[in-house]
Design goal:
Length: 129
């Protein structure tokens, strides 16, 4: 039996709890029956529906048991091969990290500057007294 080829439109059409496809490493899986059993909760997995979830899948560090479930859920190969479709959760995580870095950068700049200014003010007033 030849493997089915899943198009981007078909992948995106299956992102509800009633019909749920997920793309991992260029292969499309039907995880509809697994949504309620997902250890991380259904919200986590539903956030990745209809798109490339490879990054999210690998970042979590799924167990060998989780990986062993994949072949039974295989629908077919993705038409775009290893085309990277930005995952919603990955995009949100990138935004959070970017925001944290920007906020952290400002604090790591101004705090030492304020401490240095305070030190010089203390030295100036303590030596001229």
């Amino acid at each position: 039996m030849a493997a089915k080829t899943v198009t981007i439109d078909e992948l995106r059409a299956h992102k509800t709890k009633e019909s749920f496809y997920i793309l991992i490493h260029g292969k499309v899986y039907d995880a509809t029956k697994f949504i309620d059993e997902h250890p991380g909760g259904d919200e986590v997995i539903l956030a990745e529906g209809g798109q490339d979830a490879t990054e999210a899948f690998e970042d979590v560090g799924h167990s060998d048991e989780a990986r062993a479930l994949l072949p039974s859920m295989l629908v077919g190969e993705f038409e775009g091969g290893n085309l990277k479709l930005k995952s919603g959760a990955a995009a949100a995580q990138a935004d959070r990290v970017s925001g944290a870095v920007e906020k952290g950068s400002m604090a790591s700049y101004f705090i030492p500057l304020a401490l240095l200014g305070g030190y010089f003010a203390w030295r100036y007033y303590s030596t001229n007294a």
